[in-house]
Amino acid sequence: MNNADDSIMPEARPTSQNDEALEQPAPSGILPSQAIEGLIASRAIQLRAPLADTQLQPASLDLRLGSFAYRVRASFLPGPDSRVADKLEQLSLHRIEFGDGAVLETGCVYVVPLLESLDLPAGISAATNPKSSTGRLDVFTRVIADRVSAFDQVPAGYKGPLYAEICPQTFPIIVRQGSRLSQIRIRCGNPRDDDRTLEELHAEQKLVSSATADIPERIGLPDDLSADPPIGYRARRHPGDVDVDKDGACAIPEYWEPITLDGGSSLVLDPDQFYILASKEAVHVPPTHAAEMVPFNPLVGEFRVHYAGFFDPGFGHEATGGAGSRAVLEVRSHNVPFILEDGQIVGRLVYERLTETPKLLYGSGLGSPYQAQGLKLSKHFR
């Protein structure tokens, strides 16, 4: 295979405690948009193309694909002693140039160098997650860094490139340089709220619309199978492809089958089928916090809920037009059919405080297509 293009990707180094980079921000928390701008200005976040419109979100930064992908034999992690480029030397089958757009097929694994790289200060780490639209397309994507042993995790002080691993599950997708499938959050310390703080925050800000919240470490979120039909959508088998950069280009009936229960209160999830459902309760993320849904909890059943777990500050916030926003649930059953009951808790929201309130809030002119949503497919469908 062709060598991974090291000329455009900085080599990673082990994390360091004496970087001459930024001083560690205080207090601990998720960094808001203005702090991310500061990291870009100081080149702690490095861009190989100018910052795109709406790329900067209230508490995250969208990550952009580079100009080519490696088709690889299987998913992998580099481990503590290897760079991703070294693994690509061994595992790459061929290289795909995106040009004006290239199709990534279902069931195949691709690795794409990203246009963003990092030179993080000591004490600053990062986590990544698929964007909401990516999850609603059933595109399984994770970010890999050099010398790591976990997906979607970037250790404090990391310096080096970032790569996206992409495996479309239901829809073949068309991508190109600059397509945005993932996002990154930057954090300092441990910003997660404990149970008592979460209970106080719910009492003050009403994080979910129920009078009481299920709070063992995080907010429980039940599904809604009793809403007016359709109560959800099931992806059709053998659909056409979806261009991830074209909103409203796909007709819903060609890709999705609406689900009605005819008076029932349960839904059988078929193995290897993909579903879009909605939460029963409205969700609120106040401007002081960000939230993340735990993607899979084996204690509630053999299924995965919500590939795209980040909820930005201001989601469901009344002042930015988000009152009543439901969480859309991307659901896929594993191995066996599973009966999902109305009101069953299917996921949990983790709330993390910000270091300061962001200048930008979700829904405030950022092109936030899912503010005040109910049951809603990705923005690509009309």
Account of the protein in words:
This protein has five helices and 26 strands. A hairpin with a 2-residue loop joins strand 3 and strand 4. The chain is mainly beta and 382 residues long. It starts with 28 loop residues before the first strand and ends in a 29-residue tail after the last strand. The protein has two domains: 183 residues, Deoxyuridine 5'-Triphosphate Nucleotidohydrolase, Chain A (Distorted Sandwich); 159 residues, Deoxyuridine triphosphatase (dUTPase) (Deoxyuridine 5'-Triphosphate Nucleotidohydrolase, Chain A, Distorted Sandwich), CATH 2.70.40.10. Helices cover 10% and strands 35% of the residues.
Layout: helices, strands, pairs:
Blueprint: E1 29-30, H1 33-41, E2 45-47, E3 56-57, E4 60-64, E5 68-72, H2 84-91, E6 92-97, E7 102-104, E8 109-119, E9 124-130, H3 132-136, E10 139-145, E11 153-154, E12 159-168, E13 173-175, E14 180-188, H4 195-205, E15 219-222, E16 232-235, E17 242-243, H5 252-255, E18 256-259, E19 266-269, E20 274-282, E21 289-293, E22 303-305, E23 310-311, E24 326-333, E25 338-341, E26 345-353
Parallel strand pairs: 13-17
Antiparallel strand pairs: 1-14, 2-8, 3-4, 4-14, 5-6, 5-8, 7-13, 8-12, 9-11, 9-14, 10-12, 15-26, 16-18, 16-20, 19-25, 20-24, 21-23, 21-26, 22-24
